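=== RUN LOG ===
request id: a7f3
mode: sequence -> structure
chains: 1
length: 197
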Amino acid sequence: MSIAINNKENLDVQKIISSKKQSLWIAMGSMVMFFGGLLSALIIEKADINNWQAFVLPNSFTYSTIIIVFSSLLFLFYKKRLKQNKSVFWLLFSIFICGIGFTFLQMQGWQYLLNQDIKFVGPKWNKGGGFLYVLTLMHMLHLFGGMIAILVTMFKAKRNLYCMKNYLGLELASTYWHFLTILWLVLFFFLKSYMTG
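=== RESULT ===
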């Protein structure tokens, strides 16, 4: 009887885990379609060369790219630490700090563009600058969601709630963070090679 109950409980847990993973992948799929729509609109609008101003991306965008890639690489080590029965708190803390650094550098990049008279609105507005602000701001808003997830996992890690038998929160946060990194790389190289030319 107890074996049957345990099997049922295990099946219920597996269903919950599966549903949470599926929900995350559906959400990320929606984000891909959203950003894909923005990039498609950008390609079409660039045909109007009378209102398109080419510009060079600020160096801070390059530095922020290095930081987010580094933070994504850090996330690869959480399972190794769990296998060694070590806390992942400081690993998550380092990733969170990288997220703050990425945000700071993005804002520095916006300030640089504003100083170059590349405006989001107003008489000096142009389509190129407008799309750049929208794309980078939308990515940053999604990044904030990732940082909230990391904060939650940090608090749980501080209480030693993660182990090799229970690390779903870490897995979901890691998957989403890797997704945000790949998404930013696509946006960055697209902006660098296409939008500024």
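=== NOTES ===
The chain has a mean pLDDT of 87.
The chain is about 80% helix and 0% strand.
=== END ===
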